[in-house]
Every structure is written in structure tokens, then in C-alpha cells.
Design a protein that fits this description.
- By secondary structure, the chain is α/β, with parallel strands linked by helices.
- Among the domains are: 174 residues, Domain of unknown function (DUF4445) (Nucleotidyltransferase, domain 5, 2-Layer Sandwich); 105 residues, no CATH class; 69 residues, 2-Layer Sandwich (Alpha-Beta Plaits), CATH 3.30.70.
- The protein has 17 helices and 27 strands.
- α1 crosses α2 and α9 runs antiparallel to α14.
Length: 544
């Protein structure tokens, strides 16, 4: 009888999982969602939703999406023996069903007033039924510990799955995601940080953006003939797409992925930004084409808004790197090696990333890894690590942590970055602005760093088994809207087309597809309602 295990990564921008044969350790299937089932584009949005709408609703949406995703693996779920999960403290707390308010509110006194006792987050082994996973009655679920309040198992995976802890010289590692976990390793010490880079580097809040998945433009390079697009194939392998004229969108040459691009990843946006900067078509955030857009293949464009979103994310990264260096009494140029993990860290052209500020200034060597979170979950499922080992590692990693939200250095540098990416400040003024804040200058990036890519794909073994993309996880909020006049203004104002009003026998109902919804950070539907009868937090989870 075949025994199965499932490795699950709960990312802020989406879910990824792989089914593994526990006898042969062969990867049998890989499935991903395009977006997270909880409304919003980042962890702050997710926290707000959980607090305002109810933790039970947030947990229900997450578990429902996971159950839907697991069904796409096309295995007998009743034979699953082990599920291992990885993610940040908030995602894993929701998954486990434990207190999350201590992650939402700062201050011991406030938490005491609210009657909140922060949980230990020391990891757990639970039954699938306790978590709410369906159809696997004999499965155990391993939830790894958090390193500390702000640093989760995803950051631990970043450190454990790369070779950064083996380095004898100072180096920086970063997981390029919505919350951009990073760590400076030096002299046997570790300083960690988490920059709220936002979802742009994972293709979210980009007009034609998407996660790394088949059909995504993941890279762009400029040549004398035009800009050459790279598109991920069904195995997540980058393949040559069309060569296009970026000013007009004219196809100069068709590539093997002609007609197969459906969107663009954050790494593709970064590459287009780099090409635009190098060719003079972009001076952030402006694009100097007739219609203010950069044209790529298959009708996919980059807008000034996309440039701005990507720039703000890049700015948060560079501000974070420099803040960590300052905390350690170091500066740009003292660290020569950088590790890049996560889908964005793998698929991005490392030289382009360094050139525009995504990599710590001054490095000469770059190592690119794939999805370290699912890598850690796989090791747990395969029996190569257990909860006690993870707990011991978490204790070792409970090192110094720099809170960027309260760091004056971070705020000063990010204000400069904001001016650069949003307010037309030229890069030539960057060091002058640092001097205004009594901050040392940064060097020009190395134009030819050494780059080593450890793997070609974000998810292991996808060259054998194509990745299944669950377009719609079936997570819905629904409720009757009494006195609704059926004007559809809420539908028209929704930027993602997430809401539909339906007429039914007992009245009009609002139906919101949660993975498309921007949540309370958007809330346009509620504000637009002329009768003020659409109340977002009154809607409840329902089956699609």
C-alpha cells in the first residue's frame, strides 16, 4: 500500500504543496494557488481581516483553500500519513488555530488590557482532524516553531536550507517575498530583520502580475533587435519567449513560448525595470513611451504604477540590508556574499537585481536558492528532520532581531528610497541624501558579480511532474444585503472583480471571492454602496 506525505508552504501571496511517496521519496505531484485565500495583499491585510471579521473566518478560509488544494494532488488522501507545513508566525498560528492578537497589537500593557496571553509558538504535532484537514484520518501534522515573535519558520528555513550558517565570512541571506525576511550572519552571530516589501516582488499589486507559475514572464533582457521575454513553461522552467519592441509592442521574433504568456511575475517586472533604466525609457516612476507603458509579449504591459510598486519593494529591501549592516557596526562593502531564496530570489536575474538595489550593496558573490520553506517541509515529511530538531535550531537562532518599524536608520533610508522611486529623485543624488542624514555613502554595484544558481526551479522535481495551478480555491464570503437596490456600483468599483450581487428568493446577496478581494485595505465596495447596506464584516464563509 502506498504511503503519502504532503509538504505545504503557506506563503503570504499563495499556497504551494507537494505530494511525496514515503516509500520511494519520489515527488508525485505539485499544486499551487495563484493568490492567498484571505482577503488582502500582505500579512498586515490578513491580520486586519482576522481581527475585524473574526479569527474563525480567517482560519476557515485558509483551511478550506488547503483542502481544495490537496484534492488537486490526485492522490488517495486517506493514505496520507504525514503533513508538514512552513510559513510565517501569523499564517502558522491561523493554521494551528491559536491566538493571533499578540501579532496584531504591540505593547505588553495593551495585550494585558485585552486579556491576551501570547502563545509559545513552540511547534506542535497534531492530528489532521484537529487542524481541519479532510479525508486523511490517520495523518499527523507537524507545525514547526517560530524563532521569535516576529521571525517564523519561513525565516528558519531560509537559514537552514541555504549554506549561510556554514559561511566563515560575513554574508546576508534574504527570502524575497512579501515580508522579505533577511539575516546578517557574521562572527558566529545572527541579526535578523523583516522588511515589509509588499507583494510586488511576487507579482501582486502589479496590473498583469501573478505568482511564479506556468505562463508567467519571469525575465526580460534587451538586445539590439528588441526586448527578449522569458516565460515559465508547464514544468516551471524558464524558456525563451518573443522578442518585442517595448515602445510599440510589435513582435520582432517569435520564441518557443509565443502565445503562452498570461501574466508577469515580480522578477519579470524587475527585469523590465532594469531594461527600462538602462535604455532610458524609465526614469522612476515615469515611462517614456507614447502611452506610458512598456510593452512585452502577448499584450502584457508594464505601467508606471507597476514601476512604483516594484520600486517601493526594492527600496524596503535596500533599507533593510543597510539597517542590518549598521546594527552590526558594518557597512556596504563589508559583506561580499549574498544568498537569495524564494521564487523571486531564484527566478530574478541576479545581476539585474544587484544593479537596481535588490541585493545588499557591495557584494561580489551571489547564490540563488529556490523555495526554502517547502524545502524544510519536505525534509520533515521525509523524516530527515523532526520537531525536536527544529526546536533546538530555533533556540540557536533566537539571536538579535532588528525591528525595522522602530528603527530610525531604516526610516531615514527608506525616505530616500521613496524619493528615488516615487518622486523622481535621480540616483546620482542618493549618496548626497545619505550624507544629509549622516549616513555613509554606498558603492556602485559590481557590474560582473559571480552568480551561482543552486536549482533551476522554485519547486523541486517539477521537471518530472508539471505544476497544477488552482485558479479558484472556492473560498467565498456571502451574506444577505437587506435594502440593496441592485445598482451594481459595488461590482463596478471592485478592481479585481471579486464581488457579485445576486437576486434570490429571499433578497439580494453579496458574494465575494476572497482570493481576489483586497480586504479592508481596499473596502471600496462597502464605501461605494449608496444605501450603506453592504457591511463587509457581516459576510460569512460559504461553499462556492
Amino acid at each position: 500500500m502506498t504511503r503519502y506525505g504532503i509538504a505545504l508552504d503557506i506563503g503570504t501571496s499563495g499556497l504551494r504543496c507537494q505530494a511525496i511517496d514515503l516509500d520511494t521519496m519520489e515527488t508525485l505531484a505539485s499544486s499551487i494557488t495563484q493568490r492567498h485565500p484571505i482577503p488582502g495583499m500582505n500579512v498586515i491585510d490578513h491580520v486586519n481581516f482576522a481581527i475585524k471579521t473574526g479569527v474563525e473566518s480567517a482560519t476557515g478560509l485558509l483551511i478550506n483553500a488547503i483542502n481544495a488544494l490537496f484534492k488537486t494532488l490526485n492522490i488517495d488522501l486517506s493514505k496520507v500519513e504525514h503533513v508538514a507545513v512552513c510559513g510565517n508566525p501569523f499564517q502558522l498560528s491561523l493554521f494551528q488555530g491559536i491566538e493571533i492578537r499578540d501579532l496584531a497589537y504591540a505593547g505588553k500593557n495593551l495585550l494585558e488590557t485585552l486579556g491576551v496571553t501570547p502563545p509559545k509558538r513552540d511547534g506542535a504535532v497534531l492530528s489532521a482532524a484537529e487542524v481541519g484537514l479532510e479525508g486523511m484520518p490517520d495523518a499527523k501534522v507537524t507545525i514547526p516553531p517560530a524563532v521569535r515573535h516576529e521571525i517564523g519558520a519561513d525565516a528558519m528555513a531560509m537559514l537552514m536550507m541555504t549554506d549561510v550558517l556554514k559561511e566563515t565570512e560575513p554574508c546576508i541571506v534574504a527570502d524575497y517575498g512579501t515580508n522579505a525576511e533577511m539575516a546578517l550572519v557574521y562572527d558566529g552571530k545572527i541579526i535578523t530583520g523583516s522588511a515589509a516589501a509588499g507583494p510586488a516582488l511576487e507579482g501582486q499589486e502589479i496590473e498583469r502580475g501573478m505568482l511564479a507559475a506556468p505562463g508567467a514572464i519571469s525575465d526580460v533582457k534587451f538586445t539590439p533587435e528588441g526586448w527578449v521575454c522569458t516565460v515559465l513553461d508547464e514544468t516551471m522552467m524558464p524558456r525563451e519567449g518573443d522578442t518585442v519592441e517595448p515602445i510599440t509592442g510589435k513582435t520582432v521574433k517569435e520564441g518557443s513560448m509565443h502565445g503562452k504568456a498570461i501574466g508577469i511575475t515580480g522578477t519579470g517586472v524587475v527585469a523590465a525595470l532594469y531594461c527600462g533604466l538602462k535604455t532610458g525609457l524609465v526614469v522612476p516612476p515615469k515611462i517614456f513611451t507614447e502611452n506610458g507603458k512598456l510593452h512585452l509579449q502577448d499584450g502584457i504591459d508594464i505601467t508606471s504604477s507597476d514601476i512604483e510598486e516594484a520600486g517601493k519593494a526594492i527600496g524596503a529591501l535596500r533599507a533593510g540590508f543597510l539597517t542590518l549592516l549598521n546594527e552590526a557596526g558594518m557597512w556596504a562593502g563589508d559583506v561580499k556574499k549574498a544568498y537569495m531564496s524564494g521564487a523571486s530570489g531564484l527566478y530574478v536575474d541576479a545581476k539585474k537585481a544587484l544593479a537596481i538595489g535588490m541585493v545588499v550593496p557591495g557584494v561580489t558573490d551571489i547564490v540563488q536558492f529556490g523555495n526554502t520553506s517547502i524545502g524544510l517541509a519536505r525534509k520533515v515529511v521525509m523524516g530527515e528532520m523532526d520537531l525536536e530538531e527544529l526546536r533546538e535550531m530555533a533556540k540557536k537562532l533566537r539571536a538579535d532581531h532588528c525591528m525595522f518599524a522602530t528603527s530610525g536608520m531604516f526610516k531615514d533610508i527608506y525616505s530616500i528610497e521613496f524619493s528615488l522611486w516615487v518622486q523622481n529623485m535621480p540616483m546620482s543624488e542618493y549618496n548626497n541624501m545619505l550624507d544629509v542624514y549622516d549616513i555613509p555613502p554606498i558603492p556602485d554595484p559590481d557590474e560582473n558579480p559571480t552568480v551561482v544558481r543552486i536549482t533551476e526551479r522554485d519547486l523541486p522535481d517539477t521537471e518530472k511532474i508539471p505544476v497544477f495551478v488552482l485558479e479558484n480555491p472556492g473560498t467565498m464570503l456571502r451574506g444577505i444585503v437587506r435594502d440593496c437596490i441592485y445598482c451594481h456600483k459595488c461590482e463596478r468599483v471592485c478592481p479585481e472583480g471579486a464581488i457579485k450581487i445576486t437576486k434570490e428568493d429571499d433578497g439580494n446577496y453579496a458574494n465575494i471571492r476572497t482570493d481576489l478581494c483586497g480586504g479592508y485595505a481596499c473596502n471600496r465596495c462597502e464605501r461605494e454602496c449608496p444605501e450603506e447596506v453592504l457591511v463587509y464584516n457581516s459576510l460569512k464563509i460559504t461553499d462556492e
